[in-house]
Amino acid sequence: MRDFGGIVELSPARSVRPATAEDVVAAVRDAAARDLDLVPRGLGHSTHGQSLTTGVSLDLRGLAGVHEVGADHAVVGAGASWREVLAATLPLGLTPPVLTDHLDVTVGGTISAGGIGGTSHLHGTQAENVLALDVVAGGRLVTCSPGVRPEVFDAVRGGIGRHGVITAATLRLIPAPERVLSCTIPCRDAADLLRLQRETRAEHISGQVKPSEQGWAFEAKAVLYGDGREPPPGTTEIEELPYADFCDRLRPDVEELITLGEWARPHPWGMVFLPGPGAAAVIESTLAAMTTADLGLSGVILVKALRVGHVPMLAVPGDPVLFSVLRTASPGCASVAEMLAANRALLDRAAAAGGSRYAVDSVPPPTG
User: Fold this and answer.
1) CA dist 173 → 14, 81, 135, 331 (Å)
2) At how many degrees (to 10) do helices 190-199 and 276-288 cross?
3) Full DSSP string of 30-54
4) How many angstroms separate the Cα of 39 from the Cα of each of 13, 60, 82?
5) Greatest Cα-to-Cα distance within the chain, rounded to the nearest angstrom
6) CA pair distance 197, 97, nearest whole angstrom
7) CA 18 and chain centroid, separation
């Protein structure tokens, strides 16, 4: 069995696909009795075996489904994808405050990781926008929230499945816009990109670094919700589109990558949280040591200034910036081993600046 990263391959002793929370309880107790490791798995979008095990693989897609949508919340199964959540909430004019760029990942999986999106500068992580969780912890099913069993609530959000299995989540919802205005703004360098992200008033904002004939080019994307909004200064491209289409904007790219075979290649992703004051220097030094072959043919470099509130399991520095070097081991490019070594160097560089890793990345253990 492999995950999206395609680097680690493990064969579980048992695979269990529970249909109810009670089935999860039984699986957890059985694994404990057999002294087997148990790892929850959604759509397997981890990049270095985080959703794999040689023990019991718990396939939570059997717990999909949106059970209730209210005026300000939705109750969903942990195995539901964010695409399925949107399909239930958008007809009612509602949306989760934070969405991942790629919608085909599960609610339980991203809450367990933290969950970061383009609106995280305003709303924080997906883990911060959860009102309550049903969790199998200590061999029994419990409901937890900020006011009920907060120690369990805080342990499983961002806990990568180590402290309990999320079976259902009550998600906060907010009004969804009908249309958005997506504005592209070129930036001089990393510092300019981060400054623009901090200063621009936009509901959704992100940054990307792209190869160009002149070297690495920096670009911000500011997305304004609603009608009649003025593009930010420096905007060179504007696209107006329905909110639903904007949320699913990666689907054509993913379909093309599947056709080209790139989606199935190994994805050694390096992802680190950097402290705001030192982020630009780490980003620039990393790029100075990189070529396009180190990134891969379909690799992407993302920069996102964000806000993280109370998620104790998600260790981030102050004024955090998520720097993501999403490599693809394409033919004719750097090898998987070389890309993993580069990720290790990135993490070491980040740690020296006071940063930390995002635990869904691909980083080998240090040598020596």
Assistant:
1) 37, 16, 21, 43
2) 140
3) HHHHTT--EEEESS---SSSTT--S
4) 12, 10, 21
5) 62
6) 18
7) 24
Domains, the chain, in order of start with CATH, read 14-60 (3.30.43.10), 63-175 (3.30.465.10), 179-357 (3.40.462.10)
User: How far, in Å, CA of 107 to CA of 85, rounded?
Assistant: 9
Give Cα separations from 299 to 165, 266, 270 (angstroms). Answer: 32, 11, 11
**Helices and strands, counts by H and E, the chain:** 11, 18
Residue 68 is which amino acid? E
Element (H or E) spanning 193, and its range?
Answer: helix 190-199
How far is CA 57 from each of CA 5, 79, 107, 119, 196, rounded to the nearest angstrom? 17, 14, 18, 32, 43
Q: Mean pLDDT by 10-residue block, N- to C-terminus, for the chain (368 residues)?
A: 94 96 96 94 91 95 96 98 98 98 96 96 97 96 97 95 95 97 97 96 97 94 92 96 97 96 97 97 97 97 94 93 98 97 96 94 68
Q: Which two tokens stand for residue 184?
A: 């592209």
Q: Which two tokens stand for residue 56?
A: 């019991």
